[in-house]
Amino acid sequence: MNCSVAQSLEIVGEWWTLLILRDCLMGVTRFDDFQQRLGIARNVLSSRLDTLVGAGVLERTPYQDNPPRSDYRLTEKGRALLPVMTALREWGDEWITGPGHEPVVAVHEPCGHTFTTVPTCSVCHEEVRPREFHIEPGPGMSDPSLLPERVLARTERWHQRVAAGAPTGATATTAAAATTGATGSGFPTAEPGD
Predict the structure, then answer these.
(1) What is the per-residue pLDDT for 134?
(2) pLDDT higher than 50, residue 178
(3) For residues 151 and 190, what is the distance between their CA atoms, to the nearest angstrom?
(4) CA-based R_g, the chain, Å
(5) Does residue 12 contact residue 18 with C-beta atoms inside 8 Å?
(6) For residues 110 and 99, what is the distance between their CA atoms, to the nearest angstrom?
(7) CA 92 to CA 147: how far, in whole Å?
(8) Measuring CA to CA, which residue among 159, 24, 6, 147 is closest to residue 78?
(9) Where are the alpha helices (DSSP H) in the chain?
(10) Residues 119, 128 contacting (CB under 8 angstroms)
């Protein structure tokens, strides 16, 4: 499937894999430590680690010859999963355990405060709010059916407004969403009969 989400899930979408990655991000590197912390069967752990090594998410580094033992360390590709894992943890904190019951919190060491992540635009550096972005075909799209017609139609309307000189800021996006039934997140809301 020509979808980055689907292809990513092929590597990291399995339950045990996410827990292994969580532990890697907390500094766990050894097979026996993963096995003890997670209570995972050794054959399952071995398979998941092999998948992550094969995908370039982890690298296997021998630390003992007899018997052979290795550390499993995150690669740059693996460390790039930090925002994904942080977002998943924060979602669980908000919607599963509830505010005030977070099992762990993240502390920004330079200022010493706990924090949550805020998505920002890599160009203007403004916070990206749910009604202030949309999804559109990218340069690698080979199957236009990946995007529902409603998303493509919304994207086309946005491009037409921009070409006509209409404002594109938060107010314009929110107003357009209100009139089109779109969430602004690139994923239109379902309407009866859709």
Answers:
(1) 87
(2) no
(3) 11
(4) 21
(5) yes
(6) 24
(7) 28
(8) 24
(9) 4-12, 15-25, 31-38, 42-54, 76-79, 82-92, 149-163, 170-180
(10) yes
DSSP code at position 151: H
Q: What domains are defined for the chain?
A: 4-79 (1.10.10.10), 82-115 (no CATH), 118-194 (no CATH)
**Is the pLDDT confidence value at 142 over 90?**
no
Other C-beta atoms lying within 10 Å of the C-beta of residue 84: 13
- What phi and psi, each to the nearest 5 degrees, are found at residue 71? -90, 150
Question: Six-digit token pair at 96?
Answer: 């599963």
Mean pLDDT of the 72-101 span: 96
179 pLDDT higher than 70: no
Q: What angle do CA 25, 128, 110 make, to 5 degrees?
A: 45
**pTM exceeds 0.85 for this model:** no
Q: Which two tokens stand for residue 54?
A: 């094969």
Distance CA 88, CA 104 (A): 13
Average pLDDT over residues 102-130: 93
Q: Which amino acid is at 93?
A: D
Indicate the range of 18-27, 149-158, 180-189 predicted with least confidence.
180-189
Question: How far apart (Å, rounded) are the C-alpha atoms in residues 146 and 144?
Answer: 5
> Residue 52 burial by CB count (10 A; 0-12/13-18/19+): exposed, middle or buried?
buried
